[in-house]
């Protein structure tokens, strides 16, 4: 089951998956920031046994917090916190009944420290990360694995367009730990089931470990300078 807003993109991805892996797919076009998102998703999977649920969606309000419109802040909390919480509760209950299943809530490197310009986004992604870690503990022994998956800079088509990624820029981003979507996905299957938190790359994990030894103010201020230079 593939879920996203764009029907055309869903159709293309579904066709690729079927052609490459010889499996059946189903798609559902849903705006996960919409008020009926949870009910529409649950209705759409009612007749399916969901063995692995991956929530990899995000609203990402950009700009200084006090300048961000209220509706964008509400959308951020709804899409990044409310919807994954309610979907996880419903799907996890069925997995526990079957005594098998897996849940991954995709978080962000922006959740690991306060994030200038993306403060509300980082806070919401921190919620997802800690929700997953808490559920990993609560559901241990039930046959259901849960992980918060921390993703860093990913060279998606949208990111390439928005950031005007030239070959030179990509080389620099790669040197700083950026990944392709395929690399990020492949890493997930390597680390899933190993604990409450997984990292999309060794680079992200090493940065987190290094920052944990530094004064918090230094870490947040340094990230703020980087965000200001990149997005300010």
TrEMBL record:
GO molecular function: oxidoreductase activity
Protein name according to UniProt: Short-chain dehydrogenase
Similarity remark: Belongs to the short-chain dehydrogenases/reductases (SDR) family.
Superkingdom of source: Bacteria
Keywords from the UniProt entry: Oxidoreductase
Stored Pfam families: adh_short
Endoplasmic reticulum is among the record's keywords: no
């Amino acid at each position: 089951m593939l879920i996203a807003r764009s029907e055309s993109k869903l159709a293309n991805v579904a066709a690729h998956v079927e052609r490459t892996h010889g499996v059946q797919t189903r798609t559902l076009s849903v705006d996960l920031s919409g008020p009926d998102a949870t009910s529409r998703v649950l209705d759409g999977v009612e007749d399916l046994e969901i063995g692995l649920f991956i929530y990899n969606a995000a609203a990402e309000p950009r700009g200084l917090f006090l300048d961000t419109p209220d509706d964008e802040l509400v959308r951020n909390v709804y899409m990044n916190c409310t919807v994954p919480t309610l979907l996880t509760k419903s799907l996890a209950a069925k997995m526990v009944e079957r005594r098998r299943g897996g849940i991954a809530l995709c978080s962000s490197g922006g959740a690991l420290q306060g994030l200038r310009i993306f403060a509300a986004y980082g806070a919401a992604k921190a919620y997802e990360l800690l929700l997953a870690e808490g559920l990993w503990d609560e559901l241990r022994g039930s046959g259901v694995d849960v992980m918060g998956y921390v993703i860093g800079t990913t060279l998606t088509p949208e990111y390439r367009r928005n950031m005007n990624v030239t070959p030179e820029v990509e080389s620099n981003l790669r040197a700083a730990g950026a990944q392709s979507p395929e690399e990020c996905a492949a890493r997930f299957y390597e680390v899933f089931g190993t604990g409450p938190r997984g990292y999309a790359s060794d680079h992200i994990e090493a940065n987190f470990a290094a920052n944990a030894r530094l004064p918090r103010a230094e870490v947040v201020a340094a990230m703020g300078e980087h965000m200001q230079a990149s997005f300010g």
